[in-house]
Write a structure and sequence with these properties.
Blueprint: E1 9-12, E2 33-35, E3 41-43, E4 46-49, E5 52-55, E6 58-59, E7 72-81, E8 86-92, H1 97-111, E9 121-127, E10 130-135, E11 140-141, H2 142-146, H3 153-173, E12 176-177, E13 186-188, E14 194-196, E15 203-204, H4 224-227, H5 236-250, H6 263-273, H7 286-295, H8 306-309, H9 313-316, H10 325-338
Antiparallel strand pairs: 1-10, 2-3, 3-4, 4-5, 5-6, 7-8, 9-10, 11-13, 12-15, 13-14
Helix pairs in contact: 3-5, 5-7
Length: 339
């Protein structure tokens, strides 16, 4: 089974047959994209070639690219193995211009980032039509875990604290909105580390109000303002976080449209026109219920920012709890692999 993080080197832009599918340069849709005489792919201030990635003349330090299993073909070649995993060689299938643009967004975003709550990148290069990317190994995602079991509140408190640190760094230090926070984009490892991943739809906030205009991301986790086409800011990520941790606590997505035929419209109506979901008070602590309610405040001007939520009582409620997050993650991932 191909797991996220298991492929250490990934070749992008290869055809299903395994032959190179070079980027078209110069690109009619992206005239800034070109190829140098020494074979480097360039776009504005980004240069990537055999020796690696550079932006504004600086070598890359931390970049992450999400690659979905359905976009890969397993060549059934084992590169290495350990006690609990196997590293296999894969190739990427044909990609669209949208996917290519996502790649450049991710490279630019992570070129300047370095934080323990952000998935790390250790190198990138371009050669013969393929972009190769070396990623930090992560054992799974929150989406993997909740397929089999919800997260206990004390574990979720510590997990949420790590996510908030990553978001606070993105928002305050890099002035970037992630725009696609969801369980599948929160990665975990057996050391108990939790990291934010997948920046293909992130955007940089260019003005002092911190507002962005484009409509991208996973609709099911978007805040009401974004779905309605309004401007959004960094606390749009906070709404998405609220739904994410609520789903982790319950074991299912909080909004449950009654009709498959009208699923999208029911979901749109529920998010935009009705009260947000809430945790049952008889199953969870007052602090946790209040934290989720704060994240899911429909009025974006009253919704707290990630940095503010780091001081919320829910985040510190279990500071003295000796629970071993790493052990819990190892057990949960083992159960997931057995399914």
């Amino acid at each position: 089974m191909l797991k996220k993080g298991r492929a250490r080197f990934l070749d992008k832009f290869k055809s299903k047959s395994g032959t190179s599918k070079p980027l078209e340069v110069p690109d009619e849709e992206n005239p800034e994209r070109s190829m140098t005489e020494d074979g480097e792919l360039t776009e504005h201030d980004l240069r990537i070639g055999r020796t690696g990635l550079r932006i504004n003349g600086e070598a890359a330090r931390a970049v992450q690219l999400e690659v979905k299993p359905e976009d890969l073909e397993d060549l059934e070649v084992t590169l290495g193995s350990g006690a609990s995993s196997v590293v296999r060689k894969v190739i990427g299938l044909d990609v669209t211009e949208e996917v290519r643009n996502k790649l450049f967004v991710e490279l630019r975003t992570y070129h300047s980032s370095s934080h323990p709550s952000i998935v790390s990148f250790y190198g990138a290069s371009y050669e013969e039509g393929s972009i190769r990317i070396l990623l930090e190994y992560m054992d799974g995602s929150l989406a993997d875990v909740i397929k089999n079991r919800p997260l206990p509140e004390n574990i979720l408190s510590k997990v949420t604290a790590q996510i908030l640190r990553g978001l606070s760094y993105l928002h305050k230090d890099l002035h970037i909105v992630h725009r696609d926070i969801k369980p599948a984009n929160i990665l975990i490892n057996k050391r108990g580390e939790v990291k934010v991943s997948d920046f293909g739809v992130s955007t940089q906030l260019k003005d002092t109000l911190g507002l962005a205009e484009t409509f991208t991301g996973t609709v099911t986790y978007m805040d009401p303002g974004r779905i309605a086409g309004q401007l959004h800011s960094s606390n749009s990520d906070v709404w998405s976080l609220g739904l994410t941790i609520m789903e982790c606590a319950l074991g299912y997505y909080p909004y449950r449209p009654p009709s498959k035929e009208k699923e999208f419209f029911d979901l749109y109506d529920a998010i935009v026109n009705h009260d947000p979901p809430s945790l049952p008070g008889d199953q969870f602590s007052k602090e946790f219920c209040d934290f989720v309610a704060a994240c899911l405040c429909k009025n974006a001007t009253k919704r707290p920012f990630a940095a503010e939520l780091l001081d919320h009582p829910f985040i510190h409620k279990y500071d003295q709890d000796p629970v071993d997050v790493a052990e819990w993650v190892r057990t949960a991932l083992a159960d997931h692999m057995d399914v």
